[in-house]
Write a structure and sequence with these properties.
The chain is of the alpha/beta class and 211 residues long. It contains 4 helices and 12 strands; from the N terminus they run βββββββαβαββαβαβ. Strands 1-2-7-8-11-12-3 form a 7-stranded mixed beta sheet, with helices on one face. The protein has a 3-stranded antiparallel beta sheet with strand order 4-5-6, with no helix packed on it. A two-stranded antiparallel ribbon has the order 9-10.
Length: 211
Amino acid sequence: MRSLVLGAALLAGGYQLSAISHSVDTAGSTRHAPLATHSLSATHHSPPTRKHRFTIARGKFLLDGRPFQILSGELHYARIPREYWASRLAMAKAMGLNAITTYVFWNFHETRPGHFDFSTGERDLGAFIDEAKKQGLWVILRPGPYVCAEWDFGGYPSYLARDTSLKVRTRDPRFLAAEKRYIRALAKVITPRLVTHGGPVVLVQVENEYG
């Protein structure tokens, strides 16, 4: 059994806005890229200010035990001038979407080894998430670490390529150490914005196009 999939796409102004409804079969797998199914929360109409229960059961997303369909548009904050974030998100809401999916590009935030910028200009991921909540939209994050998305080196920091013996996207301890450092820095931004803490982040994708 699969939930209904709805789709629409808008390409304008140099950015893509594609509305999708992630569907889940009875085995719990998605028809799009895999999404982490953490026990997060949600409401039926607008992002929550209190905790709710988000689960997957019987081939459906359930919010507080009731079927919920995610209508998500792709909007990459790193590709949009910050002063346009509010208007772009408002357009998404006006299209009838109830969620925004966005990549988090690792090399956009780790500007040099060990130095992360999540607070200036277009790099202020927290501000983007907060604006989405203000506009009444849920957020699905896709932080990689590999993201593709026609972004340089799949989002990996260029310093990982300096040592040709280091193998990215493997269990190479050097790669895993850098990846863990990134995820820990990212977690500081998104953890307080999960729906379990009253934020709009309902799902986090664990990888992109792996396999």
